[in-house]
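Duplicate of #3305? Posting structure anyway:
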């Protein structure tokens, strides 16, 4: 068989113009509104078209750059993505943390993050790092009460071991702006924080030249409910604030930029997360360029990524593995330098050796079985992703400029601009999840009806009392919590000796409609942990009423078609309430023309696609006495 020359391979396929595509789409839509039907509006505030062509790449100047070239949108490395697998260890017990780290390293971890809260002397740091080859494994410290002390102890141990400090890699999580947002005030004071930053940069410039001493925790914004654009803009504004404040104190940009690292969250919006990381490198290189470094290579952004927590769930927790898998791949394809995949059960328990192993192995599979580390910037040139990158960069830059107009990141926090912007985004997300415009599988859609989680939640997690603060705090947010509270309340109600709240599906009429609405009602009430009794369909009202009463269900949901409701609902409702007046009768659907008529007949409520699921279930909980 003769193969065609690559230059003529596609000659048999004539090009299709945008006009031809548009004409075909309009024909297939049969008069439906193109924009409303096919244009997707992201929560970031920009539209996404149903398709893109090469024409959509016109005007994107950075497309001609290669990996390793300014503005570094395509990453820094040739020959593959080569990110590092990181495991963060939250334990403050030195011996436990060391044991976990050694096991993680033996099973593939290339970076370790240690909680340094209780590391206060030489013995602690020696025990914590015991057995770890510091020349091969990057070490990162977070949670320290005094980062100057932490790095001095770290340097002491490096010296004691006779190692060359110049080859030691890692970071400390020194981020006063994040502390201000999460605690509502500075740690001691702004001046004290800047003096600490000065000390860290000045003293470690030669002692530990590869250690990043300032870290921008951009992931905190997404885990408080921000959009991806807000996360990126506020992270950039934080980084710029550190550059501005410290250059004012006499540091050169060349000294500073190599000392700053960033962490971004990886959420479930797969393509947007890839584009966000590409846009981050583009914008940071433009910001650093304005400080006139002597070497443009210093404009590189060091990116660590961690899987988001705001979208993780307690119920159906193994779905979290699927979420973190796509999130991790987003980080890889977005060219992150290192990635932490959090254990799937971290939302409700201390991570276990099993869940930690799964999290590590996900990245091992990316490398060893999927060969994702063998390709350089695989998303480059993709019409869709390149346009997403441009849109995110454009909107993030506008928001960044808005922060600068408020006087920078710190002044914006003092004025509540940052907090109010994120709160507005979070409230919109809460509403979208409550109305199921956004879905969390297993939580607000397709719940596991038999799942019980109350006994699996770690009980000894004391709540920290709210301390007074000078400024509004940025609150952590997890979208599933309101739904989980409903379901856990149901479990507690049952454990207290009460009957399981039961829903009986009164199915009757056209088979297609009764099945569709029965499925909808099952999902609806399953989200609160109720028992749902389904039925194949009753031939007569009397037969259905007898079965419904015999079930001893508290809620009866009538499932049929809108055109049949007028005839059967009043009769069903009358017979049911005549024999048991406390029954709650609900109609699946919203037959608008006869709503008032059905209400007069005794119907207590309607559940439908536009219902606020959260509010409706709270109402049913109240009526049933579930607290």
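Output from current build:
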């Amino acid at each position: 068989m003769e193969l065609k020359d690559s230059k003529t391979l596609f000659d048999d396929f004539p090009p299709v113009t945008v006009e031809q595509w548009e004409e075909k789409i309009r024909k297939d839509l049969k008069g439906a509104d193109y924009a409303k039907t096919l244009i997707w509006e992201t929560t970031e505030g920009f539209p996404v078209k149903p398709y893109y062509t090469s024409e959509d790449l016109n005007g994107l100047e950075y497309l001609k750059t290669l990996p390793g070239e300014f503005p570094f949108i395509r990453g820094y490395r040739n020959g593959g993505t080569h990110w590092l697998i990181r495991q963060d260890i939250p334990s403050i017990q030195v011996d436990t943390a060391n044991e976990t780290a050694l096991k993680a390293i033996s099973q593939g971890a290339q970076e370790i993050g240690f909680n340094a809260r209780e590391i206060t002397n030489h013995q602690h740091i020696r025990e914590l790092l015991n057995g770890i080859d510091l020349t091969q494994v990057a070490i990162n410290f977070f949670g320290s009460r005094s980062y100057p002390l932490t790095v001095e102890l770290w340097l002491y141990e490096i010296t004691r071991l006779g190692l060359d400090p110049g080859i030691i890699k890692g970071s400390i999580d020194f981020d006063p702006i994040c502390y201000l947002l999460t605690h509502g005030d500075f740690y001691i004071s702004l001046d004290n924080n800047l003096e600490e930053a000065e000390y860290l940069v000045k003293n470690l410039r030669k002692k530990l030249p590869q250690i990043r001493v300032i870290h921008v925790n951009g992931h905190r914004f997404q885990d408080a409910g921000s959009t991806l654009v807000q996360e990126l803009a506020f992270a950039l504004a934080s980084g710029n604030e550190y550059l501005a404040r410290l250059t004012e104190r006499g540091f050169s940009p060349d000294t500073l930029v190599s000392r700053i690292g960033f962490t971004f969250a990886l959420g479930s919006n797969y393509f947007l997360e890839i584009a966000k990381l590409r846009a981050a490198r583009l914008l940071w290189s433009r910001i650093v360029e304005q400080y006139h470094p002597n070497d443009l290579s210093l404009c590189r952004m060091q990116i660590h990524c961690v899987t988001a927590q705001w979208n993780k769930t307690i119920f159906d927790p193994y779905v979290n593995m699927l979420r973190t898998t796509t999130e991790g791949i987003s980080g890889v394809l977005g060219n992150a330098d290192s990635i932490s995949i959090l254990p799937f059960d971290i939302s409700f328990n201390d991570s276990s050796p099993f869940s930690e192993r799964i999290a590590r192995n996900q990245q091992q599979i990316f490398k060893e079985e999927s060969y994702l580390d063998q390709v350089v910037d695989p998303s480059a040139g993709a019409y869709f992703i390149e346009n997403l990158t441009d849109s995110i960069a454009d909107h993030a830059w506008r928001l960044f400029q808005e922060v600068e107009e408020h006087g920078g990141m710190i002044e914006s926090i003092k004025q509540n601009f940052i907090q109010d912007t994120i709160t507005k985004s979070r409230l919109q997300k809460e509403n979208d999840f409550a109305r199921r415009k956004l879905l969390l599988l297993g939580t607000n859609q397709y719940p596991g009806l038999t799942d019980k989680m109350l006994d699996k939640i770690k009980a000894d997690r004391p709540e920290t009392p709210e301390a007074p603060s000078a400024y509004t705090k940025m609150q952590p947010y997890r979208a599933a919590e309101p739904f989980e509270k409903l379901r856990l309340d149901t479990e507690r109600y049952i454990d207290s000796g009460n009957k399981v709240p039961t829903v009986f599906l009164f199915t009757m009429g056209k088979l297609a409609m009764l099945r569709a609405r029965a499925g909808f009602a099952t999902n609806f009430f399953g989200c609160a942990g109720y028992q749902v009794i389904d039925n194949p369909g009753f031939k007569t009202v009397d037969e259905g009423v007898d079965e419904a009463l015999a079930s001893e269900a508290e809620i009866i949901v009538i499932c049929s078609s809108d055109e049949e409701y007028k005839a059967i609902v009043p009769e069903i409702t009358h017979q049911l309430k005549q024999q048991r007046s406390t029954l709650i009768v609900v109609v699946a659907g919203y037959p608008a023309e006869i709503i008032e008529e059905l209400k007069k007949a005794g119907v207590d409520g309607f559940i439908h696609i536009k219902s606020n699921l959260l509010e409706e279930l709270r109402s049913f909980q109240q009526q049933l006495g579930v607290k």
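Confirmed duplicate; merging threads. The first strand starts at residue 40 and ends at 41. The chain has a mean pLDDT of 94.
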